[in-house]
Amino acid sequence: MDISEALDMSGHEAWLESEQENDFLRKIYEDYRDEMYHVAYGILKNRQDAEDVVQDTFMALFANMGRMEEGSPRKNRNYILTIVKNKAINLFNSKKRLASKEVGEEALEDVFDEEPDAKIMEMEKTEVIGEILKRMNQSYRDILLLQYYHQMDVVEIAEALGKSPDNVRHMSARAKNKMREMLEKYKFADR
To answer: Quick check: pTM over 0.85?
Structure first.
C-alpha cells in the first residue's frame, strides 16, 4: 500500500496543497512505515491493530504537516515514532480496559495460578503508575514516557521536544522525584 491508498482508505484526500508537500509525505511514508509498523506491533502484538495505528499516525502527520521539517530526518523520526508509540499505547490501554471489564472466571483463575501476591502487586503497581502519570505535568509525563517506555536517550528526547539536553536532564530528575513522592503516597516506593 502506498501513501495515496492509505489516505484514500481513511477518507482523506491524497493530495496536499502542493506537490512538494505530497512528495515529502510520500517520502516519510516510504522511509518510516516499516519501522512504525514494528514499533506498533511490538506494543500491540496484533497485525491488524498495528496497521491501524500506522494508518492513524499518517492521518495525524497529514493533519500536522507543519510540525515536520524537510531537512531534519532525526527530529522527524523521533516525532513520528513518538506519535506511533502513543497511539499504540492508547489503543493497548483501551483494549486492556475493555478486556478487564469482560474478565471471566477462567481468566481470574490464570491470575492466581502462580505467585498470586506478586501478580496482584504488579497489577496494582502498574495501575498506580498509570494513574500517577495521568496526574503529572504533561512535560514530566512526556519525558518519563520517552525515557523509560520508549527507551530514548536524553539527546533524542531533547531533539524530539525541542529542548536542550541539560533541560531534559533537569526535567527528568524533577519528574523522577515527583514520581517517587507520589509512589510513596501509594506505599509502592519500597517494592
So the answer is: no
The Cβ of residue 162 has, within 10 Å, a number of other Cβ atoms equal to 9
The 8-class DSSP code of residue 67 comes to: G
Residue 88 contacts residue 39 (beta carbons within 8 Å): yes
Strands (E), the chain: none
Amino acid type, 78: N
What is the sign of the dihedral through the CA atoms of 4, 40, 110 and 95?
A: negative
- Asked if 16 contacts 65 with a C-beta cutoff of 8 angstroms, the reply is yes
Residues 6+ apart with CB under 8 A from 20: none
Q: What is the residue extent of each domain of the chain? A: 1-102, 104-191
Class level of CATH domain 1-102: mainly alpha
CATH of 104-191, one of 3.30.1490.20, 3.30.43.10, 1.10.10.10, 2.60.40.10: 1.10.10.10
Give per-residue pLDDT as tens, 100-132.
Answer: 555 444 444 554 455 555 655 666 666 777 777
Residue for grid cell 471489564: 101
Number of residues that this document lists for the chain: 191
pLDDT in tens, 54-73: 999 888 888 777 777 777 78
